[in-house]
């Protein structure tokens, strides 16, 4: 069940209605937990045990850490137990085959015969998100920044809360748990803001991201057949696709949570307008970059050392950030490109200072980000290398020209032209929502009319979405 | 009160926009059937006979052979095959509605395949274009009564009800159909309209062969068929001796059937049901056909002993679809049955 499917809309309508009909806070939390487990179980009910196990272990470990610290000990062994469990679970489901294959390849390369031990492991959806969320909780308790959750119900709801369960934002316990303590009132919910955010996310995902997916799939599937221009277009389309797909999901998650009375972390802030690669990481997947900074970069030393020590930490953080996305060397290369770019930018700032040539800086940033996307999306290193040569040296590996209209091949020319115009007002809607235009709208027109317009826009958005919705790209992580 | 007003206004905006989309949607066919419907729209004012049905009709009736035989028998006709693979009886409703909306002045008869009335979940067809486009809200009541009447466990009925409601709601809101509506609308505006797809050969008849089979399942079924003539003989024996299996008894939708008869009668068009030749031994609702035998003309080809030539092994692509030779033979027999009043 994904946010852009009609059945999710029915599911959410039920959850929303019952949630606000319940009077007590505990009843609402139990209802949300039930809905969240149903939501997660709709993918594969077998993994409900996994997520509940993760929540139970971290809840117990955090309580033990606090008890140990109250008794004057550090509680480090409980922290290590919690991290071992979370990282062990993540490592087994996500990385076992990758490391087993890589190990066998390495031994064979050394001349030591080794057969590959590949297990048929199904990757539980959202595992990278909920394990990171749970880890941040025990680390914060260990660091004394957070009190343990008073009840298991609160903590398990924090881990499983369905709007952000499978693809973030990675919510911090310090932000979410206090929200569970107080009973929300529907009067405090800004429905126009929340719904507008959900709708703009829905349009980004279901209309724009799925629309540009056609040329992306075609070129990334066989890049050696295409011209450099086609490869450039496909890379640009992928940049649009992954942004609309992921930020669309985040918007829907934040909007959904808001409708239920909860605030989640902002995850995107017009990343392609970044003035530098450092600025890009303040705007792209903000909750992950914040997590990596607070729990990885700082833990391995951060910038508390020499310049080269800081650079090493930066690159290591980005390499692991790349690996977090998926068990593949392409993600490591993607992380390496970003890590390298961050180091170069730091050195540039040290020598030339900040704020020089902002336009050129923007161009270099977007060029680097798009180059890195090639490795993020390519299905093999050979393909990625072919595309890199086309991107950097403008070498055409083939003579085929990408058909930009492949997603609507059964339609005709007039519509194709209109198709280009259709996303513009929708993008405008996204910008308007981001700028809180709903507040301005409510000032210039009656609130009831705004509601009516939302109904009209919803019908148009539903009409424009493809029936066979593609899964979100970040679900695979 | 304020909350309810907001909910009401939101739904009003949603429904009003969906209604506007529906009202400008003059070609509610979405898949491969769009080209066929456009072809029919061009020539519908000349047609006197239209065939409607599933793939058995689409693959099994050649209008050219039918018309030629009718002419030989002294009743010249101009027909069109509007059969669509994958459709069931309730799906035919919207085709009839659409035909009547075109005001077909010369249309004398619509020949509809007597097929299954069940709404069972179509395997692998959840939210597919063809299924969604068929679920017009006008057929919702009939579909739900068929769900109640079907001889299946309660849980399956609940599931099928959800399936029907979800598809009908999706189609009523025209979810996912904006691009198609816009495309149709632009073509009407530019004057190209129905002619944009070009004219298909065969006036809607699409014989099935290994080359144009819609998928590998059909090809495998054909290979299985070719390899097992004895199996075909066994199926015929079972058909002769077994009668209508219990699970196919009941479920005939009298209300829908009588409404169709009345509507077409009012429009001055004769409705004829045809029971297509088949190796299979039944379909849900077949036994109910006898109840309306006095109200509507029914021509039956489902008896291998009455029409032995139609059941020649070589005339079939697989157990459910006639080959080109079978379709040509059947088209002639159908013309004869109509003229001779069988």
Provide a brief overview of the structure:
Chain A has 477 residues and is an all-alpha fold. Chain A has helices at residues 6-21, 25-44, 48-70, 76-109, 127-142, 152-160, 173-181, 191-221, 228-259, 277-283, 286-297, 307-325, 329-352, 358-377, 381-393, 413-421, 423-434, 437-444, 447-464.
DSSP strand count of chain A: 0
Oligomeric status of the shown chains? heterodimer
SS element count, helices of chain A: 19
Q: How do the helices and strands follow one another from N- to C-terminus of chain A?
A: HHHHHHHHHHHHHHHHHHH
The description of the largest β-sheet of chain A is: none
Approximate strand percentage of chain B: 5-15%
> What's the SSE pattern of chain B?
HHEHHEHEHHHHHHHEEH
Structural class of chain B: alpha/beta
How many domains, in number, for the residues of chain B?
1
List strands and helices in order, with pairings:
The complex is a heterodimer of chains A (477) and B (342).
Chain A: H1 6-21, H2 25-44, H3 48-70, H4 76-109, H5 127-142, H6 152-160, H7 173-181, H8 191-221, H9 228-259, H10 277-283, H11 286-297, H12 307-325, H13 329-352, H14 358-377, H15 381-393, H16 413-421, H17 423-434, H18 437-444, H19 447-464
Helix pairs in contact in A: 1-2, 2-6, 3-4, 3-5, 3-6, 4-5, 8-9, 8-17, 8-19, 9-14, 11-12, 12-13, 13-14, 14-15
Chain B: H1 2-24, H2 33-43, E1 49-52, H3 55-58, H4 63-72, E2 79-81, H5 92-101, E3 109-113, H6 129-134, H7 140-149, H8 154-172, H9 178-190, H10 216-227, H11 229-242, H12 254-266, E4 270-275, E5 297-300, H13 324-340
Helix pairs in contact in B: 4-13, 7-8
């Amino acid at each position: 069940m994904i946010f852009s499917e009609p059945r999710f809309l029915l599911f959410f309508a039920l959850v929303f209605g019952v949630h606000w009909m319940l009077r007590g806070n505990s009843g609402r939390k139990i209802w949300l937990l039930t809905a969240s487990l149903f939501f997660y179980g709709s993918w594969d009910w077998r993994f409900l045990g996994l997520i509940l196990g993760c929540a139970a272990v971290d809840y117990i470990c955090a309580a033990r850490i606090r008890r140990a610290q109250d008794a004057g000990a550090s509680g480090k062994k409980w922290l290590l137990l919690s991290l071992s469990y979370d990282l062990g679970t993540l490592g087994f489901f996500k990385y076992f085959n990758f490391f087993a294959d890589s190990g066998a390849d390495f031994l064979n390369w050394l001349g030591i015969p080794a057969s590959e031990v590949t297990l048929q492991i199904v990757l539980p959806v959202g595992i990278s998100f909920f394990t990171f969320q749970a880890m941040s909780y025990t680390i914060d308790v260990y660091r004394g920044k957070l009190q343990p959750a008073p009840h298991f119900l609160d903590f398990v709801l924090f881990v499983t809360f369905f709007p952000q369960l499978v693809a973030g934002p990675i919510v911090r316990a310090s932000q979410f748990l206090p929200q569970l303590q107080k009973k929300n009132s529907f009067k405090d919910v800004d429905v126009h803001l929340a719904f507008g955010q959900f709708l703009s996310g829905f349009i980004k995902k279901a209309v724009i991201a799925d629309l540009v997916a056609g040329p992306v799939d075609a070129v990334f599937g066989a890049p050696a057949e295409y011209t450099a221009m086609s490869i450039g277009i496909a890379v640009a389309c992928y940049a649009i696709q992954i942004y609309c797909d992921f930020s669309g999901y985040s918007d829907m998650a934040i909007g959904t949570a808001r409708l239920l009375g909860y605030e989640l972390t902002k995850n995107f802030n017009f990343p392609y307008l970044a003035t530098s690669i450092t600025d890009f990481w303040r705007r792209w997947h903000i909750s992950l970059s914040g997590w990596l900074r607070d729990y990885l970069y700082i833990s391995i030393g951060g910038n508390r050392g020499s310049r080269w020590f800081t650079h090493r930490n930066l690159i290591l953080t980005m390499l692991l950030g790349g690996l977090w996305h998926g068990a593949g060397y392409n993600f490591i290369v993607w992380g390496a490109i970003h890590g390298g770019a961050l180091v170069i930018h730091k050195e540039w700032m040290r020598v030339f200072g900040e704020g020089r040539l902002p336009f050129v800086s923007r161009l270099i940033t977007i060029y680097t980000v798009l180059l890195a996307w090639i490795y993020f999306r390519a299905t093999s290193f050979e393909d990625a290398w072919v595309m890199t040569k086309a991107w950097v040296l403008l070498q055409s590996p083939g003579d085929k020209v990408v058909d930009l209209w492949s997603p609507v091949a059964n339609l005709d020319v007039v519509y194709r032209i209109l198709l280009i115009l259709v996303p513009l007002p929708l993008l405008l809607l996204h910008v308007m929502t981001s700028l809180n235009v709903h507040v301005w709208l409510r000032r210039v027109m009656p609130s009831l009319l705004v509601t009516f317009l939302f109904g009209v826009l919803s019908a148009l958005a539903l009409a424009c979405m493809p029936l066979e919705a593609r899964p979100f790209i970040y679900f695979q992580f | 009160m304020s909350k309810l007003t907001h909910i009401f206004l939101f739904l009003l905006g949603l429904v009003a926009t969906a209604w506007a989309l529906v009202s400008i949607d003059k070609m509610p066919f979405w898949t491969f059937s769009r080209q066929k419907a456009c072809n029919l729209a061009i020539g519908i004012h000349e047609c006197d006979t239209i065939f409607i049905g599933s793939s058995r009709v689409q693959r099994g009736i050649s209008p050219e052979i039918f018309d030629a035989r009718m002419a030989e028998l002294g009743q010249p006709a101009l027909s069109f095959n509007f059969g669509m693979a994958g459709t069931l009886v309730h799906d035919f409703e919207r085709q009839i509605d659409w035909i009547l909306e075109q005001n077909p002045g010369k249309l004398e008869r619509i020949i509809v395949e007597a097929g299954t009335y069940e709404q069972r979940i179509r395997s692998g067809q959840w939210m597919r274009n063809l299924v969604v486009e068929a679920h017009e809200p006008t057929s919702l009541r009939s579909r739900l009564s068929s769900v109640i009447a079907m001889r299946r466990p309660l849980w399956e009925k609940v599931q099928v009800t959800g399936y029907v409601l979800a598809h009908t709601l999706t189609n009523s809101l025209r979810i996912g159909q904006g691009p198609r509506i816009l495309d149709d609308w632009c073509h009407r505006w530019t004057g190209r309209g129905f002619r944009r797809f070009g004219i298909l050969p065969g006036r809607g008849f699409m014989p099935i062969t290994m080359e144009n089979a819609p998928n590998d399942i059909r090809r495998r079924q054909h290979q299985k068929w070719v390899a097992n003539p004895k199996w075909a003989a066994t199926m015929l024996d079972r058909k002769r001796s077994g009668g209508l299996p219990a699970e196919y008894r009941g479920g005939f939708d009298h209300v829908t059937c009588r409404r169709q008869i009345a509507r077409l009668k009012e429009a001055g068009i004769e409705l004829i049901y045809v029971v297509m030749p088949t190796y299979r031994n039944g379909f849900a609702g077949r036994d109910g056909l006898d109840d309306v035998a006095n109200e509507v003309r029914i021509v039956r080809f489902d008896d291998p002993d009455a029409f032995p030539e139609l059941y020649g092994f070589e005339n079939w692509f697989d157990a459910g679809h006639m080959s080109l030779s079978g379709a040509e033979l059947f088209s002639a027999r159908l013309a004869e049955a109509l003229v001779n009043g069988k």
